[in-house]
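Usage

Read records sequentially. Each one opens with the input sequence:
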Amino acid sequence: MSKLVLFNKPYGVLCQFSPSPGRRTLKDFIPVPDIYAAGRLDADSEGLVVLTDDGALQHRISDPRHKLAKTYWAQVEGVPTAEALALLAKGIDLGDFLTRPAMAELAAEPAWLWPRDPPIRQRKNIPTSWLKLTLSEGKNRQVRRMTAATGFPTLRLIRYSVGTWDLTGLATGDYRAADGPLSAKPVPVRPKHP
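and closes with the structure output:
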């Protein structure tokens, strides 16, 4: 049976197991051997990383051709207009590629949100707001590039779900085993990192 692990990656953690001097990596949090991330998150992004030892499953999760839905919560500078939301939903030409249509909506700050360390910068005269975005692709820095292209740069980005897996009950820095391929039912593995 394949190993499948869900991890809530904190801000600043590199999505790799190999050491990087002065930086925290997955190895600092997950002592499960022989698993690899199925899709990465940038160091300055937070949230769900799915890891597995099954190469075919890893490919199915991370390859954009399989159109596995990924939901992100983005705290952006300003309050996006209806026109900006329509652009995000339709697809945006980012120069090197045209994004697929996405679901994009203004949302209240999520109730499950944890404090970020360090906190985002606050500007006295510029409000922030939250967007909930669901994409069927996940190219490098795509959400950040999409919101910036509409005039509302991302300040904080959290991946909440990948397919049927999500962050429910998973604190930042914690991980757990999933009940097997394409199951949303978690089973406990180990307690929070040391």
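Summary fields computed downstream for this record:
- Residues 84 and 151 are 8 Å apart (CA to CA).
- Strands lie at 4-9, 36-37, 46-52, 70-77, 103-107, 128-135, 154-162, 165-166, 175-178, 186-187.
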